[in-house]
Write a structure and sequence with these properties.
This protein is an alpha/beta fold. The chain has eight helices and seven strands, in the order αααββαβαβαβαβαβ. 44% of the residues lie in helices and 14% in strands. A five-stranded mixed β-sheet has the order 4-3-5-6-7. A two-stranded antiparallel ribbon has the order 1-2.
Length: 199
C-alpha cells in the first residue's frame, strides 16, 4: 500500500483504534471524512469534543449524564424503591427499550474479573452500598450479563446484599448464555424482567 500523507495517516490511525473498526473500515471512513463538506467535518469534531467535555457520570447511579443527576434519577414518577444493577450505561438503554421496568438503576462500570485484575474495589459496589444506607430500597434486581463474569458478579452481590435485608433478585434468562443486554430485543428483556427470581 502506498505511503499515506500525514493528516490522512493520523485520521486513519485514530479511527482504527475504535472498537469494531478494522483497517478497511478505518480507511473508508477516513476517505469519507475527506469528501465531507468542511462544515459537516466541523460539526463532527464539535460533537466528539462535546461528548468528552460535557458528559460525565450521574452522582447517584453512575449513568451517563450532562448534569449532576441523570434524567432517570430526576424522574419522580419512577419506582424509587427498586434499583436495577447493570454493568454499563448502554445496558440502561437496553432495559428502557423493554418498557418493562420503571425503577431506578445503578451502573457498576464493569464486572468482577480476577484474570483481568478487576476486583470489587474497581466497580461501583461501595457506592451502591452507600445508596442503600441513604435511600429506602426494597428490591435490588441484578441484571448483569449471563456470561461467567456477569454470573460471578451477580453471585457476589447477592451474598453481599443478603445481610442488608433487601430482596435481591436476578433477571430470568430468556437471554442467551454469553449474550449482552445491549443486543437483546425488547420482548426477551421484558420477559426476563417478569420472570426474575430471588437470589
Amino acid at each position: 500500500m502506498a505511503r499515506m500523507i500525514r493528516p490522512l495517516a493520523n485520521l486513519y490511525e485514530q479511527l482504527r483504534r475504535l472498537p469494531g473498526i478494522g483497517s478497511k473500515t478505518a480507511m473508508r471512513l477516513a476517505y469519507h471524512v475527506i469528501d465531507m463538506p468542511a462544515e459537516d467535518v466541523k460539526q463532527l469534531a464539535a460533537a466528539l469534543s462535546g461528548v468528552k467535555e460535557q458528559i460525565h457520570y450521574c452522582s447517584r447511579c453512575f449513568n451517563l449524564t450532562d448534569s449532576d443527576v441523570c434524567e432517570i434519577c430526576r424522574d419522580s414518577s419512577r419506582d424509587s424503591f427498586t434499583i436495577c444493577v447493570v454493568e454499563q450505561p448502554q445496558d440502561i438503554a437496553a432495559m428502557e427499550r423493554s418498557h418493562g421496568y420503571h425503577g431506578l438503576y445503578h451502573v457498576l462500570h464493569g464486572v468482577l474479573s480476577p484474570l483481568d485484575g478487576i476486583g470489587p474495589e474497581k466497580l461501583r459496589i461501595r457506592e451502591l452500598l452507600l445508596r442503600l444506607q441513604q435511600e429506602s430500597v426494597s428490591e435490588i434486581i441484578i441484571a448483569t450479563n449471563s456470561d461467567v463474569e456477569g454470573e460471578a458478579t451477580a453471585t457476589y452481590l447477592a451474598q453481599l446484599l443478603k445481610p442488608v435485608g433487601i430482596t435481591v433478585s436476578r433477571i430470568a434468562h430468556g437471554l442467551p448464555m454469553g449474550g449482552d443486554l445491549e443486543y437483546a430485543d425488547e420482548i426477551t428483556l421484558s420477559k426476563a424482567l417478569e420472570n426474575r427470581r430471588t437470589m
